[in-house]
């Protein structure tokens, strides 16, 4: 109750805490979103590390979890490498029977290897920020197409995640609105052109609330599944992770989507003038050098 009261009073941290609970960034909902991708029913069951103990099988990293673990946009800490997933850095080198340490010091305990692998698996997936859904990206056609409905996901042969097809992620983006809003017309432009109208946006009117949801988008990665065609003409799919273009995150600070567009003719003339001056500067310098010679 204290958190909710502080959030209603405009507390930044308290409001972020409420949003994280509501959208599965922490708490029980976070576990419900990420729990299905902690296993892969389509993967081949690995052989047990201890042959006589069936429960000594190493953990299986699903394709979705592998992508989330190896991307900086979906991690609170440094992303992992695929090599770390196959051989955790917490294992000593003598866990590899072909290593020099194994030859000198003897083989590593198989039971300790099982415990170390599972401990590393549990430790690292807890650092993942789960996505709210899977976005299907069709890059085979001429135009890039996006789909998030549950039916489209099933037809693509993959599984949905979290709040798939419910429009929750789209609602957050609608509250935030575009990164750069259209420039408002000046009084002269409004009176000079009778057909000119002020641009309208559908974002939330409160800037403080938009900033809080922008920060939420920075903690909500987008897991996309795209289909590609290799050089032999075979179609294959792969996952990728990114952040929404209107999220508030350090990695998007200098993104190209944050560069404002040119809206007025005066801005275009100013850009043309500055570019012309930049082109003339080297010529004038060269002419000055020739005069001295």
Automatic annotation (TrEMBL):
One Pfam family named in its UniProt record: LYRM2-like
Domain spans labelled LYR motif-containing protein Cup1-like N-terminal: 2-33
Highest taxon above the source species: Eukaryota
Residue stretches of biased makeup (Basic and acidic residues): 275-293
Region (Disordered): 274-293
Protein name in UniProt: LYR motif-containing protein Cup1-like N-terminal domain-containing protein
